[in-house]
Amino acid sequence: MAELDELLCQSARLQIMASLMTLGAEEQVDFTYLRDLLKLTDGNLGAHLLKLEQAEYIVVEKTFVGRKPKTYLTISDKGRRAFKQHVTSLEKILHFKDKK
Amino acid sequence: MDVSREMAEQSLAEVQTTMDRTKKSIAGGAGVIMMIWGVIWMIGFTMSYFRHPYTAWIWLVLDMIGITASIIAGRSKAPVKVSSGLNWRIFFFWFFLFVFGDIWLFLLWPWNGHQLGAFIVTLVMFASVTMGLFYWGMFFFWFGLTVTALTLAGYFWLLPWFNLWMAFVGGGAFFVSGLYLWIRGRRNYGGA
Questions:
Q1: How far is B51 from chain A (nearest CA, A)?
Q2: ipTM of this model?
Q3: Quick one: which of A11, B102, B179, B188 is 20 to 30 A from B18 by CA?
């Protein structure tokens, strides 16, 4: 049976990772942009990001633009590998159950 | 962990939808910049067509406005921050594109206003095609090819009206494509 990543089985976390996967290796996305794109609240997104950061799937960079605090997010190499593995596993489930 | 076929299918659909929405909303930022250049082309080429005595100066001012507005729009509207290394590489790409453009113009002298206009437009479209292939995505690849084809059509078949053609067809293509990207970006962005 295909190995699924339990952390990515949660819909919001999977969407966060899918969104970050579209970025290049040298690109970061703004916290508020991701919050609005995925229609999540600040608290909800923050909680999911914390879990992904603890797993070292994403890198969170907190900085100031002028006097405004800004949080930028990017996906790590480990995160990319985990996401690809998870998607492959989902596809295998689909094909396996198709054949049955 | 046991996941049903429906759950797997739903998760994969979510992944695809989120990736599409992210790409489209990010490209929306470029739409603003394209609309700016569409307006600049419309004004500049219209002035060129009517042979305004200060056409060269008007183009210089318009280009300065366009570059400044593009930098401001890029920094304030873009949700994506690129690393300073990549930023510099993109800057040098455009810088050297125009350095080489100037070298070729020097080597190809003498040229007339129509040839200069067609050269600059196709040079920028070459950048769009190249960047589209390697970085920005296929929309910019096709956009570059389309505007190049329109430019050549105007140059070979409508030379007396070339500048007017470039103002409304070239500038219009820029503006409409930018508007399309911007609207598509807003539709795919939850905060819109």
A1: 44
A2: 0.90
A3: B179
Residues B82-132: pLDDT tens digits?
777 777 888 888 899 999 999 999 999 999 989 999 999 999 999 999 988
Nearest Cβ partner for B19 among A6, A18, A39? A18
Examine the pLDDT at B192 and tell me if it is beyond 50.
no
**B8, B21, B135 ranked by CB distance to A93: nearest:** B8
**What are the DSSP E strand ranges found in A2-87?**
27-30, 58-65, 68-75
Q: What is the spatial distance between Cα A17 and Cα B19, in angstroms, rounded to a whole number?
A: 9
Q: How far is CA A42 from the centre of its chain?
A: 15
How many whole angstroms separate alpha carbon A51 and alpha carbon A85? 18
SS3 of B69-119: HHHHHHHHHCCEEECHHHHHHHHHHHHHHHHHHHHHHHHHCCCCHHHHHHH
**pLDDT by residue (tens digit) across B154-172?**
999 999 999 999 999 889 9
CB pair distance less than 8 Å for A37 and B9: no
CA dihedral A47, A60, A62, A65 (to 10 degrees): -110
Residues from chain B contacting residue A39 (CB–CB below 8 Å): 190
Residue of chain B with shortest Cα separation from A3 = B1
Distance from CA of A28 to the nearest CA of B (A): 5
DSSP B47-74: HHHTT-TTHHHHHHHHHHHHHHHHHHHH
Cα→Cα distances B73→A61, B76, B80, B178, Å: 23, 5, 12, 13
Cβ distance of A97 and B11 shorter than 8 Å: no
Name the nearest CA neighbour of B70 among B37, B95, B93: B37
Closest residue, chain A, to B83 (C-alpha): A26
